[in-house]
Design a protein that fits this description.
allosteric enzyme, Rossmann fold, about 850 residues, binds ligand OX2, 24 strands, alpha/beta, glycogen phosphorylase activity, Glyco_trans_35, about 15% strand
Amino acid sequence: GKEKWPRGEEKVWKDAMRDVDTEVTSITKSFVNHVQTSLARQPYNLDNLGAYQAAALSVRDNLLVNWNETALQYTRKAPKRAYYLSLEFLMGRTLDNALLNLGLKDQYSEGVKKLGFSVEDILDQERDAALGNGGLGRLAACYLDSSASQELPVWGYGLRYKYGIFQQLISPAGDQLEAPDPWLDNQNPWELPRLDVSYEIRFYGQAERLGDGTPRATWSGGQEVLAVAYDVMIPGCYTKTTNNLRLWESKPKRGFDLNSFNAGNYEGAVEASNSAAAITSVLYPNDHTTFGKELRLKQQYFWTAASLADILRRFKNIGKPITEFPDYVAIQLNDTHPTLAIPELMRILIDEEDQPWSTAWQIVTNTFFYTNHTVLPEALEKWPVPLMEHLLPRHMQIIYDINLLFLQSVEKKFPGDRDRLGRMSLIEEGFPKQVRMAYLACIGSRKVNGVAELHSDLVKTTILKDFVEFEGISKFGNVTNGSELTPRRWLDQCNPELSSLISSTLKVDKAVWLKDLTRLEALLPFTEDEAFRKEWAAIKQRNKERLAHHVQTTLGFTINTNAMFDVQIKRLHEYKRQTLNILGVIHRYLTLKNMSAAEKKKVNPRVVFFAGKAAPAYYIAKLTIRLIVNVARIINEDPDTKDLLQLYFLPDYSVSLAEVLIPASDISQHISTAGTEASGTSNMKFCLNGGLLLGTVDGANIEIAEEVGESNVFFFGHLTPAVEDLRYQHTYHPTPIEEKCPALANVLNQVSAGLFGDAHVYEPLLNTIRQGDHYLLSDDFDSYIAALAMVDEAYLDQTEWVKKSIRTTAKMGKFSSDRAINEYAESYWNIEAQKIA
Ligand code: OX2
């Protein structure tokens, strides 16, 4: 039957409700309305920033219509939902994406033009939402976009950091300096404060087992803080479905502690409120390292506890018994950061819902799914037991209980294998003892996956080998990060000209191929079409000019747009080997210096771009930046070479900068030591935009090559199985670099000798190669230089190069995040698309 209208007169309500704007006149009306009432401004004093805010607020109104409708229908139909728990969401800018997804870009462009603004200028006012470090956070953002586009009931949960990833400045000496990123200072039109949605979260205090024959305990005392919800709308592409990303902010439970205040301790009272607010004040800027900091653990618990409380409240509204929880809820753990959700759900089920241990464990292990994103040992999270006992006493008890039962079952399967028990224990022995979060995530989840074929194999054969032997192989899978390639942002939005060329060539509307990226394959025959190739190349050229213009206006450098654009943009890390790249640049420079004028005539000019941030405490990574900046200084000024080789380090890498850099690249570098880069995600974005790939046989590079064919990529370097042996030799039978790789030795010596200034400064960086060389630069340098030469050679034949470029784009269908999210939905979460009428 028809539901009863909840209050007042239905017709009055319905007549007054707004719908999504579609006409230019209603768009200008809502824009002007926000100028007048939300911003309290007038046409006389409205600048581009004000215009951006008015446009954003009016787009938000439209999103809210769909967002409300989506939420209502999910509530009514109560389908199984998936929740994506990620400590990072690297969203970038929203306005352009929202306009494209709503299909309103043209109407808004026209509307703001009539009001005296240009849509490009307005879009350019937006600050990135940079609540992430790199690939892991950007992947989460792409997955939200794809979930909504695929009409899947998926919500994200994260933290509303007051400060996102730091802003990177480069000092005159070439050092990275960090400045805070107060992204909320201009107000954020994309979030909706839900001050009515809040939960109390406890820290510290005492846990006492009841000892009444049940596994129950009480947890009391300590500090209580408030988690308050902020909602961010996630519009799907060409659909009404608009999902939600809920971010938590921490607040003191009371403005301040009245007891201390009355006792005359004003500072103490305010301090307590500061310590609550501190929890969500800043994103940890470390990628691939863990430091065991108490505040980080607090962030993790605060976020998982609030998210679970919220999920549970929603589940309870359906009115089903708690044992059916996994039929309605799937929770994806993005790396081990949210692993505390496992003992937290156990705590709720046992202490609050009074469930027996085995029922609780059954529910937990059918609810969670764990994605691993790295096998690097320094990135595997471990928390000191004393810290856990202090901050989360009840959770530590539960972890001990989980461990005891788990090890008993291991002992049953492998009787007497004490070594194995030690290896698999959730608690690592030592001073202090530590909790191994990846193991807890693994045994507490229904399935575990890696993010590319090679990486998933490595997960199964290295870090979780014992767990595969114990639990069986079928629990362990792979979902290749078809990720980063939300086809919308990473083609249609960042490369509009290429997008239109594709639509007109394929004679299909972009609404179709943007949601089925395998359609790009139909471009293949056009490799033989000269006019098409010309247009393809012309677009790349214009994208290069757009980048050059950007660099000219922001940094004041003039870039040779007739050169090959060679790009490496990612976090600075030894395993990603930016050092190999810069040493390669120096090698090229030295080679050019020794060439005759006649030889130089045959050289194709090259511009090398770097961008990326280093963790603030990562000394070697920061030295690499300094070296790049100082090498650039010398070679860009050298009259012998500057027409043939330019080098730029672009400061403050961000999603927005990536959107300008990626479409402009002829070749991009993904040159990690084999077996270290789990997937990589920018590699796919470059290829989607017709850039060729220079890389090692690692991560998703391998699957990209499988798709486009090895003749269309440039591979070099040792393979994963060789790495361990090579490292062993470095340690036990080292060969001097002079002997092993004279070309590299020469480059190192020139740096040491002060060719780029600062003679002594780079020694610690150079010594990582001279001693130990853990990332195998000396093993891969010669083949790297040879691969660079092959790239030069290939670039001389522009016809063939453009064909390679077209083939590369055409074969990127697999790497759509839509494909990846569908794999999670079907093979992991078991959720279905919901049509929002
Ligand atoms: C990154 C991985 O390093 C990268 O290879 C991968 O593409 C990305 O996650 C998305 O899966 N922090 N960031 C990562 O792993 C961790 C840990």
